[in-house]
Amino acid sequence: MKVEFWYEFASTYSYPAAMRVEAAARSAGVELLWRPFLLGPIFGAQGWNDSPFNIYPAKGKYMWRDMARLCEAQGLALKEPVRFPQNGLKAARLALLGQEEDWGPDFTRRVYLANFSEQKDISEEAVLSGILSSLNLDAGKLLARSNEPENKERLKSQTDEAIRRGIFGAPSFLVRDELFWGNDRLEAALLWAKR
After folding, report:
1. What are 93-112's pLDDT values in tens digits?
2. Which of 1, 18, 68 is nearest to 171 (CA)?
3. Which domains occur in the chain, in start order?
4. Could you tell me how many helices (H) and strands (E) the chain has, helices first?
5. Overall pTM surpassing 0.85 (yes/no)
6. In this structure, are residues 124 and 114 in contact, taking their beta carbons and an 8 Å threshold?
7. CA distances from 154 to 45, 151, 161 (A)
8. How far apart are CA 91 and CA 87, in angstroms?
């Protein structure tokens, strides 16, 4: 059985999830599919033009404290990003190219580290190019491919699929059509997949 890991680069809780999901799935003997998507259209459909953590300040204050506890427990550095939420569109287009290739998970983790640990602007091509180059990939070629109309349409389609399948936030885990939302639901999703 497979678990689909749906994530958004602007999503805080997707950061600790992305850093542990691969090892957790391997340990459970469950196949893992990485599925980048965009939350903007989902939030927009609810009438939000910003993260709910910004719209509701008490929720945002709690989230940053909760993230500090989670990251400390996982041994992850956490620094508030240069802006929140960051624009993860270009990173998501690149991650989509790596979705079926062996560099996708490493790229994804490094983008999260750049955003939530290193305070880099992940919307900048120079930052993304640096991450690709650090993985010994042809950054120029991949950036060009990521901006081709076909790849842009693939990301839109993947986001539309997330909406059709009932995803409303990130991270989300799908086992067939069974939805598990949140970093803390990863283990439940893996158990469900093994049933």
Report:
1. 999 999 978 999 999 999 99
2. 18
3. 2-194 (3.40.30.10)
4. 10, 4
5. yes
6. no
7. 20, 5, 10
8. 9
